[in-house]
Amino acid sequence: MSKRKSAKARRCPICGMAMRKKGFTNAGAQRWRCDACSLSSTTQRADLKRMAEFRAFLAWVTGKESLSEAAARLGVVRQTFASRIAWCWNVSPRIAKGGPVHRYVEVDGTYLPYGWCLLIASGEDGRPIAWQWCERESKAAYRRLFMRIREPGVLVSDGGAGCLAVARERWKRARIQRCLVHVLRSTRTDLTNKPRSGAGRELLKLARRLTKIRDGSQAAAWLVGLNRWHDEHGAFIKERTHAKDDPLHARGRKWWWTHERVRRAYYRFIRLQRDRTLFTFLEPGLVAAGPIPSTTNQLEGGINAVVKRVMQHHRGLSESHMRRACEWAIIMLASHPDPESFVMPEAWSRTTPPERHDTEPTPGTETAVQLPAPGINAYESGFGIRKGWAGHT
Fold first, then answer.
1. Cα torsion for 110, 111, 114, 118, to the nearest 10°?
2. Phi first, then psi: what are they for 372, rounded to 5°?
3. Of the candidates 155, 163, 153, 110, the residue with the CA atom closest to the CA atom of residue 133
4. Pick from 342, 197, 312: which is nearest to 261 by CA?
C-alpha cells in the first residue's frame, strides 16, 4: 500500500499526479519524482532567484564598484549582470509618511545631474525622514516635503525663501535656526575674501567668528562687537552716490548706496537677529532636552555627501536610473532599512520604469512643449513643426 501524498505535494507538469520527494540535487535543491510517468524535476523558486538578483543590484548601486567589477565578482559578464538586474530599477523605495516627532529637523537641497534638485530632511539622529524631487527649491516643493513630516521643535535650514515661507505656513509653533555656515557664505559673497575697505575687512572678521559661538556669553559678545562696528562705520554704509556724479553706472537710478555690498552684509545680521533666527540654538527652553545644531553640516556631510559619492561612482546613468540610485542611497541610511520589503512580484515582469505623466516642464529647461487644447487641430497652419529653409520651393 503506497503512502498517501500530501495535498501540498508538487503536481507533475505532464500527468497532473502528485509527486513525491526523491533526494536532493548537487546544488541542494529538492528533487521530485512522479511515480506515474517517472518524470524527475526540481522546484524553481522565482522569488529566491529575484531576491538574490535584487541583493546583487543593491550592493552595486549603493557601492563604489563599476558594473563590470560587480559582474566579475559574480562570475558573469557585464551584459549578463545588467540584464539580470534590469527589473530592479522598477522597485521604488519610500519612507513612510509621518513618523515620530523630532526635536529638530535639518532641511537642505542638493543639485544633481539632468537639472534635478533633491530636497532631503533628517532628524536629530542624522537619519533621513523624507525627500522630494524638484526643479528648484520652491514653495511647492517644500510644501510637498513638509506634508510628510510632523511638526518639529526647531527647523534648521539655509534660509531659502520657499523653505521659510512654507515652514511658517504649516508649522506655526516651530522655531527656525538659520544655518550659520550659509550666513557666512552669503557674507563672503558680498564682501569677497579680501575686502578693499577697512569696514569690509572688519565685518568679515566678525562674520568668521559667528560659526565658533557655542554659548550665550559668546553670542552676547559677538552682538556687542557688531554694535561697535556700526558705531564706527555707520556713516560709511550710509554714503550715497548720485547719478550726476557717476552717470556711467546710473542705469536709470537717481542715486544708490555707495557701499551697497557692505551695507547688505551688515543688515543681513540685523534682520536675522530681529527675526530671532540667528541664535535660536542657544535658547534655554530649547536646549534643555539636548543641544540644537547651528548649521546643517550634519545633513550636508552625511546624507548629501553619500548621494554625491554615489553619483560620482556611477557616472553616466540615465535620468530615471540616476534618480532611483539616489533614492536607494538615502533609504539605506534610514533607521532600520528593509529594502527587500519594497520588492513586489509585479516589478519582475517589467524591464523599464513606468512613464511619468505630469504637466510640469522638464527640469533644466525654461519651458515645455504646450499641448493643444481639446478640440484644436494641432496640424492647422501655425501649429506644425517647421522644417527646411525660407524660400525653398
1. 30
2. -70, 150
3. 110
4. 197
Q: 75: which 3 cell numbers?
A: 562570475
CA distance 216 to 323: 43
For the sheet with 20-24, list strands across it.
20-24, 30-33, 40-42
Rounded to an integer, what distance in angstroms lies between the CA atom of residue 157 and that of residue 108? 6
User: How far out from the chain centre does Cα 77 lie?
Assistant: 32
How far is 212 from 215, CA to CA, in rounded Å?
10
Residue from 111, 151, 145 nearest 130 by CA: 145
- Residue among 82, 119, 78 nearest 321 (CA): 82
Name the residue with cell 545633513: 299
What's the one-letter identity of residue 225?
A: G
Per-residue pLDDT of the chain (393 residues; tens, 9 = 90+): 456 666 667 777 777 778 888 788 777 777 888 888 877 776 666 677 888 999 999 999 999 999 999 999 999 999 999 999 999 999 999 998 878 899 999 999 999 999 999 999 999 999 999 999 999 999 999 999 999 999 999 999 998 999 999 999 999 999 999 999 999 999 999 999 999 999 999 999 999 999 999 999 999 999 999 999 999 999 999 999 998 888 888 888 899 899 999 999 999 999 999 999 999 999 999 998 899 999 999 999 999 999 999 999 999 999 999 999 999 999 999 988 899 888 887 777 755 555 554 445 555 544 444 555 555 554 444 444 455 555 554
